[in-house]
Design goal:
heterodimer; A: 432 residues; alpha+beta; Alpha-Beta Plaits; Sulfite Reductase Hemoprotein, domain 1; 3 domains; five-stranded mixed sheet; four-stranded antiparallel sheet; 35% helix; B: 358 residues; five-stranded antiparallel sheet; four-stranded mixed sheet
């Protein structure tokens, strides 16, 4: 039994309504722990004054420089003592989830037992970077909690100027759109950079995210310094049974309005079945006895829309791999940036392929570590130095897939043009 | 008594997920053929070999006490073969191998207070941040604002009646950890930081703070004989970037830290390229515990979108079709000078054409 709970009239309002209430959860914990009684006390104060009362500090586990988010209360009385003394420390352990955030109940129960013993009993599945956040722990208990979580097979994630915890979509485990083994790529990359996760020493944070197809369920283009997005190079595959099933259910109106008209490049058309084009870049499939869908895959930008609508009936091709974009980030400091393409396509099937992905990540992080200014993200660095300098440094060839359009101003010195054309032609000849 | 030797961390990194996969997911890894949605909240995946798996999705409060997690585990053990996963929006998914297990699982979840939904064209759970509960720089709370709003959107979570999926986020400062979304609610400060000059010299690395400012409004100064920093308040855009590296530059203000609403962010590449969201309203009061003014504005936008959006149009696609004048007309929001971009690259956001809508 814990001490008596503080009155929380504001928070009580959040116990009303149908959505699951975190306040009700906190109160259940407060029935057993003085610690949570005082967490509620401080939170209620924030609701009243509209101010936050946590400050950072330095708390960690032996051998690591990051992964714990320290919080000390700033809500003090006239003598400088914490108003809610049992919750004077409220640290979070960031723990890396398995790819795709799959769990069995056995491991979740063990996590609960550990956190009930050493922490507040509050766990967030998951934080915005993807971590399991074990929220609320005293300085004294951080190491104890970590030791047990670590013994369970889990490790701390990133914080500060470090490689950060990563996320990957449900992917190959349960999605027909998956274009590579997200989980294996995720682990191959992240587990290479554990030193850069656990011992923050980069100019600023660096995030990888893994999405199995261009639906980008991990929001990697907007959130990741390096986005690994599944795609394919060959033709969209078809399954006539499922296409016919879609048409039987939806009819011509939906097919035209929802599929044909929404193709961003008008690569998909309705044709009479006996007039369908043939050729190496053409996909076609009958949706009834007389009519067919025809896709010219050279015009397709792999946006996923038609595949999303007629899932299974249309599907990614067989020559699968990933597109790599670099430089996504949110506002601070120069404004939002999306990642941009630096590798239009790479295979990700074998361990050797994945090794190449790891090497690319290593090169990018090395260049970032050497060249970024303090507190500058990869995207900001590229904005400052120009994409061409970045590609040069990584030894990546330019490709028209890297731009929305070529430059629209003449402000560039082009006296190396002829040599550059000759070099590219020679290289192409060599490959061919 | 000798002290126990210090335990060295096992740097095991990201654990293998194979050990946690539902047996059918493990068996059919990389071998799925298609999926459909028999009802809101349920995904039905069919493997190439014919295996079928039903995933039942339910909303959670994200910040869960261990009793809630254990209750979800009990449900998973009793009705769902002991395996779960979480989505990026903190929904929980239970995978089951027989269709007749779906209905009892749904019934149990709903009885225990976990709404089943969040699939397809629903309004899914709001991605959110830490707020007053744990963050060191929050302008507002996250879990509470989300709880209040999800109470209002509860029925839309359980239905699939929107033109396309709706992803929402909230963020407690302009860093926007919540991320891009169809609708985002983000703190927008309106006054420059209040500086405690007694503390700056001891707490802040002054050159780093100067460098952090996006508009070069901060400069070193000596105030009351102490080294400190000062802000050119005419230049200051009240973004709060200086506050994390220098807590004595307090940006949060109970009155003047407001909430802004942004729309039209899209993560997916489907149809158009991914888009950033755009600010469409600001100046909403930070009004705990239930933020009714925010709920009203969000619901107005959602209502207009639901009424007028065509199938498969995300918020951004809908606005592309109807145009901004009609967006403001339909939502009743007011277009002001503050919504005309003047940050770097702003010209691409101006209308350089005679394409107009009346």
């Amino acid at each position: 039994m814990a001490k008596q709970q503080h009155p929380t009239p504001m928070l009580d309002e959040l116990e009303k309504g149908p959505w699951p209430s975190f306040v009700t959860g906190l109160k259940r914990l407060a029935a057993e722990k003085d610690y949570v009684v005082d967490v509620l006390g401080q939170l209620e104060t924030s609701y009243k004054t509209r101010k936050g009362y946590w400050k950072g500090g330095t708390v960690g586990v032996i051998g690591y420089g990051g992964g714990v988010i320290p919080r000390f209360t700033e809500l003090k009385d006239a003598e400088g003592k914490p108003v809610f003394k049992d919750a004077a420390e409220f640290h979070t352990l960031r723990v890396m989830p398995p790819p795709g955030m799959h769990y069995n109940t056995d491991v979740l129960r063990k996590m609960c037992d550990i956190w009930e013993r050493h922490g507040s009993g509050l766990i967030a599945f998951h934080g915005q970077s993807g971590d399991i956040m074990f929220q609320g722990c005293t300085t004294e208990n951080v190491q104890k909690a970590f030791d047990e979580i670590n013994q369970l097979g889990f490790d701390l994630g990133g914080a500060g100027p470090a490689v950060r915890t990563s996320m990957s979509c449900v992917g190959a485990a349960r999605c027909e759109q998956s274009c590579y083994d997200e989980a294996r790529a995720h682990r191959a990359v992240i587990n290479t950079f554990l030193d850069d996760i656990h011992r923050p020493s980069l100019p600023y944070k660096f995030k990888f995210k893994f999405s199995g197809c261009p639906n980008d369920c991990m929001n990697s283009i907007q959130r990741a310094d390096m986005a690994i997005i599944g795609t394919w190079r060959d033709n969209i595959q078809t399954d006539e049974t499922l296409v016919r099933k879609y048409y039987a259910k939806h009819g011509m109106t939906d097919l035209v309005n929802d599929v044909i008209a929404r193709c961003p490049t008008k690569a998909i058309r309705v044709r009479n079945a006996d007039e369908v084009a043939t050729g190496p870049s053409i996909t076609s499939v009958r949706f009834d006895d007389t009519q067919a869908l025809e896709i010219d895959n050279r015009d397709c930008v792999r946006c996923m829309h038609c595949i999303n609508v007629i899932t299974g009936g249309l599907a990614p091709g067989k020559d699968k791999g990933a597109t790599i974009l670099v430089g996504g980030k949110r506002t601070l400091k120069i404004g939002d940036l999306m990642g941009t393409v630096v590798v239009p396509f790479m295979k990700l099937e074998t361990d050797e392929d994945r090794e190449k992905l790891v090497e690319l990540g290593q090169k990018i992080i090395d260049f970032f570590a050497e060249n970024a200014l303090e507190h500058e993200r990869t995207g900001e660095m590229i904005e400052r130095i120009g994409l061409v300098n970045f590609l040069d440094a990584l030894g990546l060839d330019v490709d028209p897939n890297m731009v929305s359009c070529p430059r629209t101003n003449p402000y560039v010195r082009t006296d190396g043009w002829d040599e550059e054309v000759a070099r590219i032609k020679a290289k192409k000849q060599q490959v061919a | 008594m000798a002290q126990a030797p210090m335990r060295r961390a096992i740097e095991s990194g990201v654990p293998d997920n194979q050990q946690f996969l539902h047996p059918l997911l493990k068996k059919n890894y990389g071998n799925w053929r298609y999926h459909d949605r028999p009802r809101p909240g349920v995904l039905h995946h069919v493997a190439r070999g014919g295996d079928e798996v039903w995933s039942v999705r339910a909303g959670t409060q994200r910040q869960m006490d261990v009793h809630t997690v254990r209750k979800l585990c009990d449900i998973a053990d009793q009705y769902a073969e002991g395996h779960v996963r979480f989505t990026i929006r903190s929904n929980i998914e239970f995978m089951v191998s027989r269709s007749e297990m779906v209905a009892p699982l749904i019934e149990r979840l709903e009885t225990e207070g976990f709404p089943v939904g969040g699939t397809g064209n629903s309004i899914s759970m709001i991605a959110h941040t830490q707020g007053w509960l744990h963050c060191d720089i929050p302008g507002t709370d996250a879990s509470g604002a989300v709880k209040a709003l999800m109470d209002e959107l509860y029925e839309e979570f359980k239905r699939e009646e929107m033109p396309n999926r709706v992803h929402m986020s909230t963020s407690c400062c302009e860093i926007n950890c919540g991320g891009q979304a169809d609708i985002a609610i983000i703190v927008q400060h309106t006054k420059p930081p209040k500086i405690n000059h007694d503390l700056v010299a001891n707490v802040c690395e002054r050159p780093a703070v100067v460098a952090r400012c996006p508009v070069a409004a901060i400069r070193p100064a000596v105030v009351n004989g102490k080294p400190s920093l000062e802000v050119d308040e005419k230049k200051c855009i009240c973004c709060g970037a200086c506050y994390p590296p220098c807590p004595p530059m307090q940006i949060n203000d109970p009155e003047h830290s407001k909430l802004a609403i942004w729309v039209g962010g899209k993560n997916s590449n489907a149809r158009g390229k991914p888009t950033f969201m755009k600010m469409v309203a600001s100046g909403l009061p930070n009004n705990p515990p239930r933020w009714p003014e925010v709920s009203d504005a969000v619901k107005r936008i959602l209502h207009a979108y639901k009424e007028d959006g065509r199938p498969w149009e995300r918020m951004a696609d809908w606005i592309d079709r109807i145009g901004w004048p009609r967006f403001f007309e339909k939502t009743g929001l007011t277009f002001t000078k503050y919504l005309i971009d003047d940050w770097r690259g702003a010209r691409v956001n101006l209308n350089a054409s005679a394409h107009l809508r009346f």
